[in-house]
Amino acid sequence: MSNAKQQILSRLREPQRPQIDTTGRDYLSKFAWSTEERIQRFTDKMQAVRAEIHRTDRDNWRDLVSELCRTKGLSNLLLSAETEWGQAIMQQPEQFPALKHYDRDIEDWKQEIFYDTDGSLTSTLGGIAETGSLILWPNQHEPRMMSLVPPVHIAMLEVDKLFTTFAEAVQEQGWAKSGMPANALLISGPSKSADIAQVLAYGVHGPKELVVILID
Amino acid sequence: MTTEFRIRVEDALKKDDVRAHFRKAMDTLMTNRRGQFPEEDELQRLRSQAMAIRANALSKLPELLELLEENLTANGVQVHWAQTTDEANNIVLEIMNRHGAKSVIKGKSMVSEEMGLNHFLEEQGIEALESDLGEFIIQLDGETPSHIIMPAIHKSKEEISRLFNEKFPDIPYTEDVDELTKSARNILREKFYNAPVGLSGVNFAVAETGTLCLVENEGNGRMSTTVPPVHIAVTGIEKVVEQLSDIPPLISILPRSATGQAITTYVNMISGPRQEGEKDGPQEVHLVLLDNGRSNIYSDPELLATLRCIRCGACINHCPVYVRIGGHTYDTVYPGPIGTILEPQKEGLKVHGELVQASSLCGACGEVCPVRIPIPGLINRLRYEGVRQDTEHTRTKDAGTRRKTLEAVAWQGWSWSASHPGMYNLGTKMATKVRKLVPGKMGAWTSVRSAPKLAETTLHEAAKKLGVDNE
What we know:
The complex is a heterodimer of chains A (216) and B (471). By secondary structure, chain A is an alpha/beta fold. Helices cover 28% and strands 23% of the residues of chain A. Chain A is built from seven helices and twelve strands. Chain A has helices at residues 3-13, 35-48, 61-71, 84-91, 110-115, 166-172, 175-178, and strands spanning 52-56, 76-79, 98-101, 119-123, 126-128, 133-136, 152-158, 162-163, 183-187, 192-193, 201-202, 209-215. Chain A has a six-stranded parallel sheet with strand order 1-12-7-4-2-3. In chain A, strands 8-5-6-9 form a four-stranded mixed sheet. Chain A has a two-stranded antiparallel sheet with strand order 10-11. The radius of gyration of chain A is 21 Å and the shape is globular. In chain A, 44% of the residues are buried. With 471 residues, chain B is α/β, with parallel strands linked by helices. In chain B, strand 5 (204-206) and strand 6 (211-216) form a beta hairpin. Helix content of chain B is 50%, strand content 10%. The two termini of chain B are 42 Å apart. Chain B is globular, with a radius of gyration of 26 Å. Chain B has 23 helices and ten strands. Classes of the chains: A alpha/beta (216), B alpha/beta (471). The interface between A and B is large, with 80 and 97 residues. Strand 9 of chain A pairs antiparallel with strand 9 (266-270) of chain B, so a sheet runs across the interface.
């Protein structure tokens, strides 16, 4: 045990423990919102921070994403060949811009993802209605930088994974029990800052545009 | 009795344009916060919950720190302990040297400011570059943050435009905020791309799962902790919480209290380096746990509340003193009410003890604090710490060193007369007789105020005349 650790801990162990009142600590914040209310709240909150929301279903989402790629002028799209969304798109590549896959370590294609990737499409683990947030757990199929480096991020969210609060999501999905992944994220809109004279500007370091495809 | 602090205050009060700027910014922040808590009951419940979470964590602090280390280590994160900022700086340097790294890109971190890390690394020939837009701007100008969450809040758009033009002459002059932001994005993207090491702070560290939480809006936190092959996180030992389920309530109240946002754009939860089979993320993650006086604060059952702080800045935004004098006037790492209670404890009452006098004890800070730190009460306590004589009963750094004989004698006299009614009445009666002798000029006091006037009769006489009888 390092000397610093030993000394810090012994100093912390010395005083009498503070008497505390933890009443109210374990309150679980959640709301009795219907699915439609959750969707409405999620949409309002996301739009308020300039995210784009499109609601569609399993039959039509692919055409919608194809159309969005066209209108946004994406010349390529990064996706995973392992997700159902990626696989469906790969079945009709002619409808989409050039498809890219994150199938190498970042060191082997850093230049390309930084300077030659227009957009990405990822799945999500769920959504949070209260704050308008996406839950992402990046993994080997959909690595961290997919939702971070390209200027446009398209995120797929199924309506039945929309929770009312973050607290509810953590509990229902059993985050603590399952063990946390190396990287977990909440994303609530495109990257932004008000550091220059409190004027809101978008696309500081992360994606300039966040597009959420809500699937019924 | 002019002091350096008083001189800085005087200078700050003369800068009308800067004061107007702060006023406008703080008004917006206060309005935004109010908008986030439409229901008073809900706000009070959330505050109680957040307080309970933080108080619970502090009551188990040594055990939770050990559990945090155990779980982080199991996740592949290397944990380091530092008693002083000097030790923390050297830990960072040692990691940098081991990788032969000559630069580091930083997400926003107040603990790194506390360490004076940038300065330390530069002396060692290592470039430390800030990537939070506000921090980037003030670093360009060689300044320190004037606010803990909005570091460049003292700068106007025009000043920033001129600064960009001066530092990056190749970029055409613009006052367009989107254009300025785009320039910063391009400059910093390249830096992220090449940086061998990224450094960040930590908002909360979860002992149960070994998870470091980091909230931010720009993506500077994500980039700093994702792109470079090595990530170093620095944090104070008080930032630990017990369970993962403690995080949602804190994430709920922190940004709402801070900037009046429902949530920050990004909430990063980092529990380890790149795992087997993963294609990106840092190969190494380090956590530096810094004490720097915190364990000393911990030893006092009342002052301990200081350590509940989640660094939202709401107390700063609502402080009538801060809004008038601005952040730099404090000459501390943490300004405003939280700095007023934290800095004298951390750095000692000799250096920063004067700050606790610079308060009207209006109570706004305590009312808005999301973890219910009784800031005005602690300010009062630190005033007492500064003048108390039984210094063997306190661990507050430099306790008793602000005691002045003249002040002590005056209060002793007051205390004596207040407990001897006969003398007290005689004294006040005498004072009404000599009221004409009170000078019109009383040094510094009357330089900006009119002199106090004694009344023609004492309160007792006036009450008697009105027939009030309470005796």
